[in-house]
Amino acid sequence: MNPDPDNNTPAAAGVVADLAPADPREHIEPNEAQRPMSLWYVTFLCLFFGWGGYYVQRYSADYGALSYDENAGFGGAKTNIVKQVDPYVLGKRLFENVCAKCHQPDGHGVAGQYPPLVGSEWALASGPARMVRIALDGLQGPITVKGAGYNNTMTPHRDALNDQQLAAILTYVRTQKEWGHNASAVAPEEVAGIRNKTKDRAALGSWTAAELLALPDHEPRP
Amino acid sequence: MSATSPSILQALSPSDTEDVAQRRALLAEIDASCRGTLMLFFGAALVWLLIGTVFALIASWKMHSPDFLADIPWLTFGRVRPAHLNAVVFGFASEAAIAVTLWLICRLCRAPLMHGWVVNIAGVFWNIGVAIGIGGILAGHSTAIEWLEIPGYATPLLFVSYALIAIWGIITFRFRREKHLYVSQWYLLAALFWFPWLYSAAQILLIMEPVRGVVQATVNWWFAHNVLGLWFTPIGIGAIYYFIPKVLGIPVYKYSLSVIGFWSLALFYNWNGMHHLVGGPLPAWLITVSIVASVMMTIPVVTVGLNHHFTMWGSFHKLKDSPVLRFMVFGGMSYTVTSLHGVLLALRSVSEVTHFTHSTIAHAHQGMYAFFTMVMFGAIYYIVPRIIQVEWPSARLISIHFWASAIGIMLYIVPLIIGGTLQGVAMINPDVPFLDPNKYSVVTMTVPYLRVRSVSGFIILVGHLAFATSFIWIVARWIKAARQHQPTPIVSNV
Amino acid sequence: MNYGPIIFLGVFLTIASSWIGLVLIPQVQFGRQQEVKIEETGEIYPTVRPGLAQQGMEIYKANGCIYCHSQQVRPEGYGADIARNWGQRRTVSRDYLHDNPVMLGTMRTGPDLSNIGVRQTSVLWHLQHLYNPQITSKGSIMPPFRFLFEKRKAGDKPSPDALALPKEFAPEPGSEIVPKPEARALVQYLLSLKANAPLPEAR
Q1: ipTM beyond 0.85?
Q2: SS3 per-residue string spanning B101-123
Q3: Would the CB atoms of B325 and A92 count as touching at under 8 Å?
Q4: How far apart are CA B434 and CA B436, in angstroms?
Q5: Are B282 and B274 in contact (CB under 8 A)?
Q6: For residue B347, how many other CB atoms are within 10 A of its CB?
Q7: Span A200-208, average pLDDT
Q8: In a domain, A12, yes or no
Q9: A83, A99, A159: best mutation site toward chain C, by most C Cβ within 10 Å?
Q10: Residue A93 falls inside a structural domain
């Protein structure tokens, strides 16, 4: 095969290197042909320009610095429809994204580091009062779960999760069928009640196991 | 290989008219004037290409095997990845682009490169700048601004070298002997003018005197998208516009399409950047404007695509014989595909899925490699034998290079676009966990695709090694010929 | 188009247009935003990062965390950012006033970090995760950052700085793993990432 098959004709004879024509096989420099524009093509251009103008006007809200919703300002602002989600489904979703970081997706925790939730006497207590407190303001220091000791910190979620979300997570943990859990569900109102009652807790730091054990399982009705 | 068209015979016949003979002598003078400069740039580009490929492989391997080389701070993923990007973008691609641009400008202006040593010095400093910059990134001095990671202490060097090169290109243009401005020249001159504007504006507003808050993000993506849109793309298109008709010996299909293609690119491409921030903390209008500009890119893409396609029409069989044409046509077709894919990715509904996923990475490689790099390879294969008057030693190596690069990059892009899209579909579904080692989760589902990417990287490396071998071989022949003062004739074995 | 100056003029005007549209106008329109007082709490938002967190940002920059982690929450109903609890609301321009550089990111190989300081406040968790992501996040493809820690000879009892590790990740007996100042600073930076103030424009 010819090493440089771009050019496939014999060399002109008598090529002198220093003043060699660039490449005797090479075509002359390229040029453009003149042809009329097709009507289809002009129509194609017009369609695009028309669409572009419409789209900018339609989806720029009011061109404001703080207008983030592209539909606002055109009478079409998205209303915040809160979708009703089954608390178990919502709880599972949030568990996987929030709790599984430490307690692991399978709920078994990390030996010696992060206590398990599966079969945990804390999670399955007859009432959720302690669980809600731990989830709201975290937990610090030594704790015994299923006979094993742990000494770590649990993240507070007071600012990160609302009542509905916390209730959903706790409901999920307490009723996870695959883990064999069958405790009572947690209502958002219960979380709201405890949140309000302990609203000064954040300033005092996370709970300790001893403090929590001194509290009843069920929140006494006010 | 005997298919010769009448025009070739005419151009070759010993009875060349005086005019044609004179033109050829001029082209030879131009090629000779570019020799040292271009070989410097091509050689350095090749070195950066190999370095960049190795960084790419390390980064790719780390993505599915995070323990690989994990204890060496300067080889951690977050440093190797920007080192790869800057090596291939500012080392390889920019240097190849500069060399090809200078040569095309000289040839199309019919003006030899004057005082090439100035450009050589700029080239040396450019390389020093890139080397310092990449060393800085590996040492942990990255600015963490995408496409601008090179630390502030190296960028003035890059900017001054670049300015010198661009000025030289424009001076050459000023002393042109050819009145007619061929379409490639519009693109090349525009690129020479656009890049320093972009680079200096971004440096000043992001690194020297940073603007406050998310305006940084708009400047960042205005710059980063335009490096592709206003620097590499015009040079890539300009090169295709030159080489396809040049190799075929026929004119470009339609002048009016050339004009519209150029001005619509100039008008729309620079407004595209904010489509990287869809859903981000920026006002709706800013993102909408960029989405529209991205969709309007259909006009230049389709226009240029049609112009190239109809120029090739009826000559596709020549792809079999001409490696240059093969690289160019592969690049040109990739440009059309990647740009139309980009139009889709910019739409809000598509971006919701694909933004933040590997499909963006695949798209970037489709543009930078399947389009631009392939065009540069083709151009290098055409230019080098002409400036040093030595033939490529092995057609087989060129063939290996083409097929390894073409198959490698397709194996990179296609699975990663699919994998990235599936990743996005999983990510926007809150019921798919983000990470769970035992279930289908956003993180774990990508791993098989990332492994395929590493395989594709090795195939591409084979291509680059074939290219490097060819290049070293031809340079060795050149040096040998120069020592003997007997240049090898251009056609060695017919 | 054989007239050079026309090409230069056109080329100049096109790039100037986008420079004005995408750089200058944004700077004029929202480049000088100010802090605001949050009605609910009476606090000024956003606040400047404390020094150690600022040092941690340099570690975040140097090691290219941005290539896998974004720092932006997309609005409710667009993607699943809020459903995944990466934030309780979308992020807006005011959230980034004191970030330099602003590291919005374009990739989510790992989760978004806009609110990691709200979502995970345990320093120990972060240190374990940085030392080896497999401890806390099995199956993760994040690289371990062991070079931000040092191995020391342990005294008679573990020093207070030593990192608690599960058995399979612990060093051989007699030595202990201690986070370097870089690791501690990085964790402080992560803990400082909070975009949860109830801004009116973010609803």
Answers
A1: yes
A2: HHHHHHHHHCCCCCCHHHHHHHH
A3: no
A4: 7
A5: yes
A6: 15
A7: 86
A8: no
A9: A159
A10: yes
Q: Which backbone phi and psi does C36 adopt, to 5 degrees? A: -130, 160
Residue in C closest to A114 by C-alpha: C136
H helix or E strand, kind and range, residue A140: strand A139-145
* Range of the structural domain that residue C135 is part of: 49-202
CB pairs under 8 A between A and B: 209
Q: Which of B181, B107, B100 has its CA nearest to residue B375?
A: B100
The CA distances from residue B91 to B97, B326, B377, C13, in Å, are 10, 24, 15, 29
Q: With cut-offs at 50, 70 and 90, classify the pLDDT of residue A20.
A: very low
Q: Tell which B residues from 126 to 185 touch A, by Cβ distance under 8 Å.
A: 180, 182-183
Q: Select from B212, B351, B219, B220 the least CA-distant residue to B279.
A: B351
Write the CA distances from B241 to A41, A149, B190, integer angstroms. Answer: 20, 73, 15
Count of domains observed in chain C:
1
Q: Which of A1, A2, A16, A29 to mutate to test the interface with B (most CBs of B within 10 A)?
A: A29
How many CB atoms within 10 Å of residue A179? 19
Per-window interface: B 378-437 vs A, CB < 8 A: 382, 385-386, 389, 391-396, 430-431, 433-437
Q: Which residue has the higher pLDDT, A155 or C15?
A: C15
Closest to A184 in 3D by CA, of A196, A166, A172: A172
When scoring A15, A16, A27, A42 by the number of chain B Cβ atoms within 10 A, the one with the most, hence best to mutate, is A27
**Alpha-carbon span C164 to C176, nearest angstrom:** 9
Peptide bond preceding B300: is omega within 30 degrees of 0, i.e. cis?
A: no
Cα dist from B165 to A138, B41, B109, B113, B123, whole Å: 62, 12, 17, 11, 8
SS3 for B350? helix
- Say if A19 falls within a structural domain: no
Total structural domains within chain A: 2
C-alpha to C-alpha distance for A6 and B406, rounded to whole angstroms: 19
pTM: 0.90
Tokens found for residue C108: 């989510």
Distance between CA atoms of residues B441 and B31, nearest Å? 57
Cβ-Cβ pairs closer than 8 A, A with C, add up to 73
Q: Once rounded to an integer, what is the mean pLDDT over residues A137-158?
A: 90
Sign of CA dihedral B284, B289, B290, B296: positive
Residue A13 belongs to a domain: no
DSSP string, C121-184: --HHHHHHHHH-HHHHSTT--PPP-GGGEEEEE--SS--TTPPP--GGGSPPTTEEEEE-HHHH
- What CA–CA distance (Å, rounded) separates B234 from B231? 6
Q: Nearest-5° angle of CA A137, CA A143, CA A148?
A: 140
Contact check, Cβ <8 Å, B389/A17? yes
Residue A47's domain comprises 32-81
All structural domains of chain B: 17-180 (1.20.120), 225-494 (1.20.210.10)
Q: How confident is the model at residue B491 (pLDDT cuts 50, 70, 90)?
A: very low
DSSP A141: E
Query: For residue B207, which of B158, B149, B276, B125 has the smallest C-alpha distance?
Result: B149
Task: Indicate whether B191 pLDDT > 60.
Answer: yes
In a domain, C20, yes or no: no
Do A37 and A118 belong to one domain?
A: no
In sequence order, the β-bridge partners of residue A151 are: A142
Distance of CA B346 to the CA centre of its chain: 21
**Per-residue pLDDT, A5:** 42
Helical H segments across B227-322, by residue range? 233-248, 255-268, 284-296, 298-312
3-state secondary structure of B155: helix
Residue of A nearest to C138 (CA): A104
Report the b/e string of B326-345 with b at 16+ CB within 10 A. Answer: bbbbbbbbbbbbbbebbbeb
